[in-house]
Specification:
Blueprint: H1 2-7, E1 11-15, H2 22-36, E2 39-45, E3 50-54, E4 59-62, H3 64-85, E5 91-96, H4 100-107, E6 113-117, H5 133-139, E7 144-147, E8 158-163, H6 167-175, H7 177-180, E9 185-192, H8 198-209, E10 214-220, H9 226-237, E11 241-245, H10 251-257, H11 260-267, E12 271-275
Parallel strand pairs: 1-2, 1-6, 2-5, 6-7, 8-9, 8-11, 9-10, 11-12
Antiparallel strand pairs: 3-4, 7-12
Helix pairs in contact: 2-3, 4-5, 9-11
């Protein structure tokens, strides 16, 4: 068991809220923890609404009923966590009356992998307890698995690596090794103006030396959307996981002008494994 943990993930942290897909996401993460012999940590937080009690001095007080409401929401999220873990022993629950995204980032020090739900503009989410995946990816210093709505299992048999010659992509591929080693097929996709990409070939060679069955896929010429090309390849081979670096450029620049990270977070129906 100790050798298995050393080769994979020893601790998987999963965010819980009152959104409609929290239990499905939790079951996916718990199954992943079982597969890797990892500790399963559930995290939830909510920041109670503050009330201005004195207009002259702008003294803010947290109303008792707000605190009780937030604690009630966290208790409800804990029930979902309890339903997911069942009789598992190596589990832990962490919660706080604080900002959900900031609390999850803080607690990430105890995790090898963080699992969160997708929060696309059209997704149904919990406004009080949900977290922003892009912010977590940027600031946690841990790999992030973003799970789309309704998905409750990650097979990981076929994986697409969205490769770009960046530090973030190199880190993502290394961080994802425990999953990639279990895959039957890994395709390292790169977009280039040329008809050969030595960096993608090097990545495949490196992965092969780690026992990963992989091949490069070069997409040359002009394209309207890199993310669209990635998702087309995912559909073509039947993959349910994309491995990608997160925000190779300034995050503000990507959100203002577009970018593969933003587009994948917004549109991917496959799970996203991201590192920054």
């Amino acid at each position: 068991m100790e050798a298995t943990k050393a080769a994979g993930f020893a601790s998987i942290m999963t965010h819980f809220d009152l959104g409609p897909w929290a239990e499905a996401r939790g079951r996916l993460a718990a199954a992943l923890a079982d597969e890797h012999g990892a500790r399963f940590i559930g995290v939830a937080a909510e920041l109670p609404i503050t009330v201005v009690s004195d207009i002259n001095f702008a003294v803010e007080e947290v109303a008792d009923d707000e605190r009780r409401r937030a604690n009630g929401d966290i208790a409800a999220a804990k029930k979902t966590f309890d339903a997911v873990v069942g009789s598992r022993n190596d589990v832990e629950w962490r919660c706080s009356l604080s900002d959900p995204t900031r609390f999850l980032i803080q607690q990430s020090r105890a995790a090898d992998l963080i699992v969160v739900g997708r929060r696309a503009s059209y997704d149904q989410s919990d406004p009080s307890m949900s977290v922003w995946p892009g912010v977590v990816a940027m600031e946690a210093g841990r790999p992030l698995l973003v799970v789309p709505p309704e998905k409750d299992f990650l097979a990981g048999h076929k994986v697409v690596v969205a490769w770009k010659e960046t530090r973030e992509a190199r880190r993502a591929v290394k961080d994802a090794l425990p999953i990639l080693k279990r895959a039957n097929e890994v395709v390292v996709m790169t977009a280039s103006a040329h008809y050969r990409d030595e960096s993608a070939e090097d990545v495949c060679s490196w992965l092969s030396r780690h026992g990963v069955a992989c091949r490069p896929s070069l997409h040359a010429g002009e394209m309207t959307s890199v993310a669209g090309e990635v998702l087309d390849l995912v559909s073509d081979i039947g993959a349910d996981l994309i491995v990608s670096g997160a925000y190779g450029h300034s995050r503000m620049r990507e959100w203002l002008f577009g970018g593969a990270t933003r587009d994948l977070l917004e549109t991917s129906g496959a799970c996203l494994f991201m590192s920054h």
